[in-house]
């Protein structure tokens, strides 16, 4: 896998996590721990993208 395609895949995963976080935050009675976990995953992806860019 080339660096460019790897970066694109990381960005796609980051966007998917962003959407999941937004949906979870809008849902009534959503699990705060799950949202925090999703945000941590999203942050790790962002850091990896920045490191590789």
What's this model, at a glance?
This protein is an all-alpha fold.
Question: How do the SSEs run, as a string of H and E?
Answer: HH
Shape field: elongated
Distance between the termini: 16 Å
Mean pLDDT: 94
Q: How many distinct domains?
A: 1
Q: Over all CA atoms, what is the radius of gyration?
A: 13 Å
- Major pleated sheet: none
Describe the protein's architecture and organization.
The protein is mostly helical and 53 residues long. 85% of the residues lie in helices and 0% in strands. The protein has helices at residues 3-26, 32-52. Helix 1 packs antiparallel against helix 2 (32-52). The mean pLDDT is 94.
List the helices and strands and how they pair.
Layout: H1 3-26, H2 32-52
Which features would summarize this protein structure in a list?
53 residues; single chain; mainly alpha
């Amino acid at each position: 896998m080339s660096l460019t395609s790897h970066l694109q895949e990381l960005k796609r995963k980051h966007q998917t996590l962003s959407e999941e976080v937004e949906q979870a935050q809008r849902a009534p009675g959503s699990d705060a721990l799950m949202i925090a976990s999703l945000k941590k995953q999203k942050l790790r992806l962002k850091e990896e993208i920045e490191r590789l860019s």
